[in-house]
From TrEMBL:
A GO molecular-function descriptor: oxidoreductase activity
TM region(s), chain numbering: none
Swiss-Prot/TrEMBL keywords: Oxidoreductase
Family according to the record: Belongs to the short-chain dehydrogenases/reductases (SDR) family.
Protein's name according to its UniProt entry: NAD(P)-dependent dehydrogenase (Short-subunit alcohol dehydrogenase family)
Cited InterPro entries: NAD(P)-bd_dom_sf (IPR036291), Sc_DH/Rdtase_CS (IPR020904), SDR_fam (IPR002347)
Length: 261
């Protein structure tokens, strides 16, 4: 049984592919989806972190056969095609695609960013999700339907010091979500989540030396965890959201609606 204990398995019988799924938000999503009954293929760039991710998930009580991994880059056309093919070959379907992989090689004002940093950011954070959606559409979703979830950011809707180019790409991802929700309907639902500040290694520089102060600025008085995003992802990718498409769900502890100082 894929579900842990007696917990319901709303994703039972479905296959999910999660890019950047070996740590942080991606690992949280991969683990919860497996707990909820899905077969999960985790894709990331580093094999050691992938094997560790699979180990931690299966040690939580998930059927080891329900979780697999593949080394791949989020901005690689070849890796997208090969990973989708592996998911279909291994599990017989690809019902859910989660585009979680992201990068942010530059922190600072837009006037200081270089071309290579700008290209890398958009290559992974904007072109990457589109390319993986193309691969999933061509190999499975067009004929069978399914759900796509893009992980954006509150930086895509709000101004953040130092995160201007990262936010520009995430804003593009929100528009891409809406556009593809229209283009791939009615068989494929496409939604996004905009996380606020989540305690992950990628965001460590933003919270490590001031977590309590940051938490105090939020209505819910704490930073987010990967599990917070995973729970929202499970809803949007399950039958409970069968009439939801083209939407971006903000999960930020109320940060964007906090009183202005």
């Amino acid at each position: 049984m894929n579900a842990v204990g007696d917990r319901a398995a709303p994703l039972a019988g479905r296959t999910a592919l999660v890019t950047g799924g070996s740590r942080g938000i991606g690992l949280g999503i991969s683990r919860l989806f497996a707990e909820l009954g899905a077969n999960v293929l985790i894709v990331s760039r580093r094999e050691p972190s992938l094997t560790e991710a699979v180990r931690t998930i299966t040690e939580a009580g998930v059927d080891p056969g329900a979780v697999a991994y593949r080394v791949g880059r989020a901005d690689s056309e070849e890796d997208a095609d090969a990973s989708v093919a592996l998911a279909v070959e291994r599990f017989g379907s690809l019902d859910i695609l989660v585009n979680n992989a992201a990068t942010n090689p530059y922190f600072g004002p837009l006037t200081g960013i270089g071309r290579s940093q700008a290209d890398k950011t958009l290559g992974v954070n904007l072109w990457g999700p589109l390319r993986w959606i193309q691969a999933a559409w061509e190999q499975y979703l067009r004929d069978h339907g399914g759900a796509v979830l893009n992980i954006s950011s509150t930086s895509g809707t709000a101004v953040d010091p130092g995160l201007g180019w990262y936010g520009t790409g995430k804003a593009g991802l929100i528009h891409l979500t809406r556009q593809l929700a229209m283009e791939l309907a009615p068989g494929v639902r496409v939604n996004a989540i905009s996380p606020g500040l989540i305690k992950t290694d990628m965001s460590r520089a933003l919270w490590e030396n001031g977590e309590e102060e940051l938490a105090a600025t939020m209505p819910l008085a704490r930073l987010g965890t990967p599990r917070d995003i995973a729970e929202a992802a499970a809803f949007l990718c399950s039958g409970a959201a069968a009439w939801v498409t083209g939407q971006t769900l903000t999960v930020d502890g109320g940060y964007l609606v906090r009183p202005s100082s």
